[in-house]
Every structure is written in C-alpha cells, then in structure tokens.
Design brief:
This protein is of the alpha/beta class. The chain is 51% helix and 9% strand. It folds into three domains: 2-73, 3-Layer(aba) Sandwich (Glutaredoxin), CATH 3.40.30.10; 84-215, Up-down Bundle (Glutathione S-transferase Yfyf (Class Pi), Chain A, domain 2); 224-253, no CATH class. Strand 3 (52-55) and strand 4 form a beta hairpin. It binds glutathione.
Length: 258
Amino acid sequence: MLTLYDNPFSPFARKVRMVLAFKGVQYDSIDALALKEHGRLARVNARSEVPVLVDGSLTVTDSADIVAYLDDRFPDPAIFPAGAEPRAEARRWQRVADTVIDAIIHDISIWTWPTHRRSDQPPQGLLEAGREELHKILATLEASIDAEGFVCGRLSIADFSLFPHVSSLKVLGIVLEASTYPKLLAWNRRMRLHDVVREDLEYVMRTAVEKFMAGGSPYEGEKIVWRGDRIEWLLAHGFHEWFFSEVTSGRAVVPRSV
Ligand SMILES: N[C@@H](CCC(=O)N[C@@H](CS)C(=O)NCC(=O)O)C(=O)O
C-alpha cells in the first residue's frame, strides 16, 4: 500500500490526490502538516513539505516528481497527453501552477486562511499587485483552453495542477467575469462535474469543517514557511521590507533541504 504524506488544503497534495483517484490507486493518507505529525514528515522529507509519496522502500518528494512517478508506475490512464508538443505544454502549465500561481496566491492569502492567525493587515499594495498579476496569467489560460474544453487537448495534469488554484480565487476576492473569461468559467464548471474533482472538493469542504470546528486548528498558526518561489514573488514586487520584518519577528521559516 502507498502512503501519501498529505494535507487536505495544500494545492500540491490536492493535485496528487486527484491523480491517484484518476488512476484508481488506493493509498493511506496522513495529514502530515498537523503539528503532531511534524516529526514523521521530517523523517521522509528534510524540507518538511507535503506531499511525499512512500511506496515500499521508495520515497518520492515534490508533487511534479510524484506525478511523473505515478504515471510510470500506473501508466493507464495516462495523466500526460499524447504527443511531444501537448506534453511540453502540459508540463509547462504544471510548472506555472506550481511555481508562479501558487506563489502569488500564497503571498496574498495569508490573511484569508483559517490556518494562519493574523490580526495585522497586508502591506500596502500587496493584494492589488497579486490580483493584477493573476489576471494576466488567467488571460493566457483563457486563450489556451482549446476546442475540447481542456488546457492541453484532453483532461491531463495541466488541468489537475491548475484547478486547486482556480478554485480558491473567489475566496481571495478575484472574480472571473463571464465577459472576460467565458472559456475558463466553462472549464471550471466542467472540472467540477468530473467525479475525481467533485469528490476531492467535497473532501476539502468536509475536512475544513472538521479541522477548524469550534475555532481550533491542528496546524501551526504563527510561523509561515517561505519556499523560494514565494519569496521570489515578494522580492520581485518590492515587498522586501515587509518580508524582512517577517524574518526579524521570527514568523518566517525558510525550509532547509538537507
Ligand atoms: N515544490 C513542492 C512544494 C510543496 C509545498 O510548498 N508544500 C507546502 C504546502 S502547500 C508545505 O508543505 N509547506 C510546509 C508547511 O506549511 O509547513 C511540491 O511541488 O510538492
């Protein structure tokens, strides 16, 4: 049996869970970001990040590597489209979702999620800069949705990588207007009808109620882990002083890989 070091709300873990369900693979799940599981997570991933997949004696970290491994290990149904060009596009969209969209959404959502207990306000201009840049990326996504209604010809890793991020935009005050994003809205509706996506969304909603019931939380609430891409986006947009105040206040944690 495979074990997934998981977290209900992580977009990377959500992507991997949807790939496992798409391929019909059974696995055990551990909510490894819960404080009581930190020791176990650190033993399989020095960066203490989810997702991590353990398959017998093999440990695979990083969601894109896990997806590639799952596609080698359980080739049918394939998660990458056929043909060199669509495959390159699918990998590119996965990377954009994992390193660019994730970074922006993470950086502007710290004051939104119940996992973080923040009583302060975001630095001036941060939310606006994030929303503006997300709209630029969403415009390229709108243009990429093809006649089949998917990002790369047929349902693939591109769609599963993007969906967790697109599904969190509304909560962040980013509205997809029908006049600007007709294809993206249709894609979003189509994705939500797919069993794999619907079941994962239901799992996320159900677990959110369970985990944050009565104002409690099983997760770290003060310290925030700042992976490279997420720091890069802040620095590229001039929020270095705010970031340094997070570092000096002890609220910022930077993962170590060894
Ligand atoms: N590049 C990694 C990124 C994984 C990542 O950033 N995971 C976050 C959750 S979304 C994490 O585990 N952060 C540690 C923490 O919040 O304690 C991947 O694709 O798997």
